[in-house]
Amino acid sequence: MACAFLLSPASCSGLRARMIMRPGAGSLLARRLREPLGAPLGEVYTFLSGLYFRGKLAYARAFADRPEHVLVITPTAGLRPPDTPVTLDVLDGFARIDIANGGSRFRRPLLADARALAAGLASDDEVILLGSIASPKYVDVLSGVFGPRLKFPLAFVGRGDMSRGGLLLRCVAEGAKLDYVPVAGATRHGARPPKLPPLPRRVVPAGG
Known about the structure:
Elements: E1 3-7, H1 15-21, H2 28-33, E2 39-40, H3 41-49, H4 51-63, E3 70-73, E4 79-80, E5 85-86, H5 88-95, H6 104-119, E6 126-130, H7 136-146, E7 150-153, H8 161-174, E8 180-182
Parallel strand pairs: 1-3, 1-6, 6-7
Antiparallel strand pairs: 2-5, 3-4, 7-8
Helix pairs in contact: 3-4, 4-8, 6-7
């Protein structure tokens, strides 16, 4: 049974986005976005979102059955591999789309790519959404394509973005997968779970 991961996008209109998109931005990432080859989508989204997207990307890469089953939801380009090059113009286009309103510029390419992914999956393969199911912005399109095969981590319920990111990174460090449940009929809101205990420190033997 194969397992494909769909990662929700980072916000392209927040403070971090403005830092790299403003005229005269001089960071290395900002300069790369202005070059013809751009920068990898996963790297850009990790900068924009921080811990949450870093956790999603690390988890998906650790537990996907093959690299092409790690895909990122984008505002205008459907599902894209995290290594997809992104330029400043592309990022500016992303920032102009309000995903929450579910307009055709967002829904149409997402629907087309979801159908293409579904066509290559077996009937018992799973599609794991690493993102929010609290609103219909992703779920409506994806559920219509994947049906009961669309699942999400049960441990996400009640957690904020930072907590989810930390949880995913902990799973990668421990080599432990989360439990997944179908999105259809799932509880989308819940009580906040207890804070994660700190990871145990590595003991370095004396004398190296």
